[in-house]
Design goal:
With about 240 residues, the chain is of the alpha/beta class. The protein has two domains: about 120 residues, 3-Layer(aba) Sandwich (Rossmann fold), CATH 3.40.50.2300; about 100 residues, Beta Barrel (OB fold (Dihydrolipoamide Acetyltransferase, E2P)), CATH 2.40.50.1020. The protein is built from seven helices and 17 strands. The strands form five sheets. A five-stranded parallel β-sheet has the order 2-1-3-6-7. Strand 10 and strand 11 form a beta hairpin. Helix 2 runs parallel beside helix 3. The longest helix is centred in the middle third of the chain and has 21 residues. The protein is elongated, with a radius of gyration of 20 Å.
């Protein structure tokens, strides 16, 4: 599919290099505009229907995170392009789809564009659709350790799990919550054969309880109990692959 994109980068040479790489190696990307600072980027974002923004971190009159804060809710993907690797965690928290280091590797650029293309294709296919998991078979039980032994619960009764340091909060469909002295990684592995998806570093959800996928900043899922959980950009594709 075609991706409508802009490049936000204060150095003209860097913009030209990226644009040339995209023209040659990523023909499905249409660069519809360029900006050298936050204010120019805001104008382009507000006046174009965008799928993708290539975003440098350091710019005059603000940085990439300032720009995203000013934009507010977004429905495009972001690929950060920077010479500084210490922004990686902030980029992750800003729901970047990919993080490219300068000088840009052509192979990594292609991977980044392919990843965004996959996400947008799946999102478009599911737009305004009733979400039906490809598999709704999560029959089974799981044991929850307790001080005096363990409790057995049905995996189908779990709505989602939330990380709490080295503990995990398990939310059930009867409005009860269990606090367990196991990490979320433990439950991700324990429920690997059931229909559970790690949608965020802090959340593991039962995909059978997902009733809606919401685009926007980072994207999010709405569960059957009304709980809305944000989806990390790096985990979107895995989540969307659960649905028809």
């Amino acid at each position: 599919m075609k991706l409508n994109a802009i490049i936000v980068e204060d150095e003209e040479t860097s913009r030209d290099i990226l644009k040339n790489y995209l023209n040659k190696y990523c023909p499905n990307v249409n660069v519809s505009g360029e900006a050298s600072n936050v204010e120019e980027a805001l104008v382009l974002i507000r006046n174009n229907d965008l799928d993708l923004v290539f975003l440098d971190v350091e710019m005059p009159y603000g940085n990439a995170f300032d720009l995203l804060d000013k934009v507010g809710d977004i429905d495009f993907e972001t690929i950060f392009v920077t010479a500084y690797n210490h922004y990686a965690m902030e980029a992750l928290n800003a729901h970047a789809s990919y993080y490219l280091m300068k000088p840009i590797s052509i192979d990594e650029l292609i991977k980044a564009v392919d990843y965004v293309t996959e996400i947008k294709t799946k999102e478009d296919a599911l737009q305004d659709q009733v979400l039906i998991p490809k598999t709704n078979n999560i029959e089974g039980k799981i044991t929850i350790p307790q001080l005096d032994g363990f409790e057995i619960i049905n995996t189908s009764d779990i709505l989602y799990c939330k990380a709490d340091d080295n503990y995990t909060e398990i939310y059930l469909n009867n409005n009860k919550k269990k606090l367990v002295s196991k990490t979320l990684k433990y439950f991700e592995e324990a429920l690997s054969n059931a229909s559970f998806a790690r949608v965020h570093k802090s959340y593991l959800v039962n995909v059978n309880e997902v009733v809606k996928y919401l685009k926007g900043k980072g994207g999010s899922v709405l569960l059957s109990n009304g709980k809305q959980i944000i989806v990390s950009a790096s985990r979107k594709s895995d989540l969307l692959s659960y649905f028809k």
